[in-house]
Design brief:
Largest sheet: 7 strands, parallel
CATH architecture: 3-Layer(aba) Sandwich
Number of helices: 9
Number of domains: 1
Radius of gyration: 18 Å
Strand order of the largest sheet: 3-2-1-4-5-6-9
Distance between the termini: 44 Å
Number of strands: 9
Strand content: 15-25%
Order of helices and strands: EHEHEHEHHEHEEEHEHH
CATH topology: Rossmann fold
Length: 246
């Protein structure tokens, strides 16, 4: 039976992942901002897992609160086997272009707060010589595009940071898994027109996350075809790429 920490548990992907992990009878500590939605998810996961589910509402932008959060998680669970970092926001690119404050706020949420939590969790896992750290990034971090480069820059920072952690901890019994979803039908993408084969449902991503944890994967594109799409995109010459409207 695993002890699982899910940070950003009220996101659609995190909720679907919790449900899949619950089928294994895991114990959970769920963290999210929306207390009412968090309580509903915790109740559902508790029924599915047959185990008590601890929950905590917290603004994860408050980086100074992160060490105390993990202390409370340890007090509740004893230790963490799997940690999933799933929080984030999709900023308005046009608004970011007009405001440095808005840009930095998006980077703080999507990159700095994730890096803070990943650092603390990595150190905890390293001390125990075991554990699985999973963070949800995005294919947007593979190359800067005019339509979402602030979001992409934050995700790129997370990708590189996790790559370094993976290199550091690979011989310490610790898995570090980067999840790179493409287009996912969630409340965060509510403003998008969701048509075509490129769009996935949260449970498809959750299935891939659980499989990645089971198989000890490193960097996972979900659905898998995004690996080949991004391989093409990152190899387009810059002289051509800068003229494309992407």
């Amino acid at each position: 039976m695993h002890n699982i920490l899910i940070i950003g548990a009220t996101s659609a992907i995190a909720e679907a992942t919790a449900r899949r992990f619950a089928a294994t009878g895991a114990r959970f500590y769920l963290v999210g901002r929306n207390a009412e939605r968090l309580a509903a998810i915790a109740g559902d996961v508790e029924i599915r897992s047959g185990q008590p589910v601890a929950q905590e509402s917290l603004d994860l932008d408050l980086i100074a609160e992160h060490p105390a959060l993990l202390a409370r998680v340890h007090q509740s669970l004893g230790h963490i086997d799997i940690a999933l970092i799933a929080h984030g926001v999709l900023p308005d690119q046009q608004a970011c272009q007009q405001s440095v404050t808005t840009t930095l706020a998006a980077i703080h949420t999507n990159a700095l707060s994730v890096i803070s939590l990943a650092t603390l969790l990595a150190n905890d896992f390293e001390a125990r010589q075991r554990g699985t750290l999973i963070a949800i990034s995005s294919v947007a971090g593979d190359r800067g595009r005019q339509s979402n480069y602030v979001y992409g820059a934050a995700k790129s920072m997370v990708n590189l940071f996790l790559q370094g952690l993976r290199n550091r901890l690979s011989r310490k019994g610790v898995q570090v898994i980067t999840i790179k979803p493409g287009f996912v039908d969630t409340p965060m993408t509510a403003a998008f027109e969701k048509k075509g084969m490129l769009w996935a449902q949260p449970d498809q991503i959750a299935q891939g996350i659980v499989a990645a944890a089971d198989r000890g994967r490193n960097e996972v594109y979900l659905p898998g075809f995004w690996r080949w799409i991004m391989l093409i995109i990152i190899h387009i010459p810059e002289s051509l790429f800068k003229r494309l409207k992407l």
